[in-house]
């Protein structure tokens, strides 16, 4: 065998050894074993305009959607509140997916428990699972709050979370006054941003509307504080630091509703922290009295925005702002709400970003980009690319609505660089593959799953969408604010220069532009 104590090979080399190559060749006897000529013929056909038309005509099949399911967003929300344990009413396998998804992206442990529903619960209901599960969670992990959400199984059979939680309290699983906000998050509709919205709304309603009828509803006493809601954000560790820094420069009294940035950024110092940071229950109650709430993701927080308005708060709604204009809107909103001038430090940072863009715009001007991700994030990236003189040629969101598409189209139509660019709501990555073959672009913006599109179509991938599994620590840097804009600009430029070097690397043949100075 090629692997022994004196010859240790990494996996990328190990499977190139003759023994493994023979195993792979022998496997074809038991697999489809189509002729390579036929495989190539079909593969090449899937790159044509004819196939694209058939691909876009499908209406009953989704292939590799650029979204996750609702409970993932609910688990995100639970991790954003102080000493809160996420409790998913469903099977252990579902919860293992949520934990691993976040842990692989943030490189940090993600705590979440389940009611361990199995076949019998699917038939008779999961009440007993809820009773036992809440008791175990309360006694083993000692949280200050348990946030409950659901999976497909619980929703298909119609389990009533409100009744189940109250029954559990009557059975003595948890104290009668223990806080257990909940949200129904069926995984077979919507996406992770829908789950985020439902779960955050569930927490706010729990504390503001009388804790599911077990306490007096809070009365709003308008004050001068500001709430901030970031929405589902894979870069929350870096972004939340930047957002708090900006508010601090204004000296603003701000309450961040749902902040998981610290639980996914704990230090290695010998102490395990199951709970770290997050919005406290006292802060949630105080947030009702805020003068206004700034929401960074309109399409991620639709129900929550409506609820905040019903409570009498002004709601400033943005779309994951990045770059100059997007950050300007955020900064000016804080200035107006606080009545304070824009700090000189932020004015300086704005000028520095504009200067950096001017230094580099010649390289990015006219470059074509395809991108996919969450709706608000795509609006933010579209606006910034247009500021750079680039062309966001294909903008796709599997969880994007027609209203979202109209908003993106309006952004494109407002810029000369948006001419010919198109928006694709409710489409998936197999649709994107067709577009990359029939209407090629220079770069692709997406998540880790885009690396297969990069390999298949030869389009260089810039990883700026959740989840990112195959690169480390991107989430520690901001994408919001002027500082975030500089980070994005650098990533765009790095990929451009990498592609340029790769295309001019052969000595004596293509290295006429293999330059030291760019």
TrEMBL record:
The keyword Transferase does not apply. Binds 1 [8Fe-7S] cluster per heterodimer. Its EC number is 1.18.6.1. Residues 1-55 form the Nitrogenase molybdenum-iron protein beta chain N-terminal domain. SUPFAM superfamilies: Helical backbone' metal receptor. Pfam families: DUF3364 (PF11844), Oxidored_nitro (PF00148). InterPro entries: ChlB/BchB/BchZ (IPR050152), Nase/OxRdtase_comp1 (IPR000510), Nase_comp1_CS (IPR000318), Nase_Mo-Fe_CF_bsu (IPR005976), Nase_Mo-Fe_CF_bsu_N (IPR024564). Its cofactor is [8Fe-7S] cluster. It comes from the Bacteria. Residues 69-493 form the Nitrogenase/oxidoreductase component domain. CDD domains: Nitrogenase_MoFe_beta (cd01974). GO terms for molecular function: nitrogenase activity. Keywords: ATP-binding, Iron, Iron-sulfur, Metal-binding, Nitrogen fixation, Nucleotide-binding, Oxidoreductase. It is an enzyme of class 1 (oxidoreductase). It catalyses: N2 + 8 reduced [2Fe-2S]-[ferredoxin] + 16 ATP + 16 H2O = H2 + 8 oxidized [2Fe-2S]-[ferredoxin] + 2 NH4(+) + 16 ADP + 16 phosphate + 6 H(+). Belongs to the NifD/NifK/NifE/NifN family. This molybdenum-iron protein is part of the nitrogenase complex that catalyzes the key enzymatic reactions in nitrogen fixation. Tetramer of two alpha and two beta chains. Forms complex with the iron protein (nitrogenase component 2). This is Nitrogenase molybdenum-iron protein beta chain. It comes from Sphaerotilus uruguayifluvii.
